[in-house]
Automatic annotation (TrEMBL):
Keywords: Cobalamin biosynthesis, Methyltransferase, S-adenosyl-L-methionine, Transferase. This is Precorrin-6A synthase (Deacetylating). The keyword Transferase applies. Pathway: Cofactor biosynthesis; adenosylcobalamin biosynthesis.
Length: 256
């Protein structure tokens, strides 16, 4: 039976590959990579560099396909259906790759940024393909170092404080209000710099973009002071590269 590995490859630094991930890479016959276009071609190159560093040339095949576009203008009630349509389009591509490019007794792998269990669609897509029943395969997951772990490590801090919870959410959810009964909040997938809404509160921000790559940018401090600096850094980086991936931790000071 065909086998699929979903391998977490860290936030971008090749040194963040775990020993388990390296072992998984070396047991793979075919690597599937989705190309996001010329603007994000360096993401494909980072994957290639990881393979070159850990696998002997000629021992594997690399198959690329174009990633489907997602309707990023969809908001409100249209957001979830738009994401669902995009995931289904991806599922069709993955299914074709597995069926056409992977032999019955071969092992294929998807290389996932960070950790496959945190804000990534690969596992859900594979389950969708299995439910369709057109192709059979087994799959295993290799955890990776997430951008969240890399972020707090770079800022030399922890995710939570003693006896206090931490919450991981999205910019879309943060726009609805700061989570109740949580003072440490990690925010991902925020294209609108929602942290600016909380500049009048006693909250520190630990921000990072392109974490683990040569383009890494870090900034921290009280939101009121750090927000203008982050906005400028973010705008300059996006202009330079054409895209940006950033994550941040908001830490609210204890309230009396």
């Amino acid at each position: 039976m065909r086998k699929i590995l979903v391998i977490g490859i860290g936030a971008g630094d090749p040194d963040q590959l775990t020993l388990q991930a390296v072992k998984a890479l070396r047991s793979t016959d075919v690597f599937f990579i989705l190309d996001k276009g010329e603007v994000k071609s360096d993401l494909v190159q980072l994957r290639r560099d990881m393979l070159d560093a850990h696998i002997q040339e000629g021992t594997y095949r690399l198959v690329e396909a174009r990633d489907p576009e997602r309707d990023r203008a969809a908001g409100g009630a249209a957001y979830s259906p738009a994401v669902g349509d995009w995931r289904s389009a991806r599922a069709e591509i993955y299914e074709r790759l597995i069926t056409d490019e992977l032999g019955e007794d071969e092992c294929g792998a998807f290389l996932v940024w960070g950790d496959p269990a945190l804000y990534d669609s690969t596992l859900g897509i594979l389950e969708e393909i299995l439910e369709r029943g057109a192709v059979a395969f087994s799959y295993d997951v290799v955890p990776g170092i997430s951008s969240v772990s890399a972020l707090v490590a770079k800022h030399r801090t922890g995710l939570n404080r003693v006896a206090r919870p931490v919450q991981i959410t999205t910019g879309r959810r943060l726009a609805e209000g700061f989570p109740e009964d949580v003072d440490d909040v990690v925010v991902m997938l925020d294209a609108h710099q929602t942290f600016r809404r909380y500049a009048d509160q006693d909250i520190d921000i630990y921000w990072g973009a392109y974490i683990g790559t040569p383009d890494e940018i870090l900034a921290s401090g009280p939101i009121a002071e750090a927000a203008p600096r982050i906005e400028l850094l973010r705008a300059e980086a996006r202009e330079r590269k054409g895209w940006i991936m950033d994550t941040y931790l908001l830490r609210r000071h204890p309230r009396d």
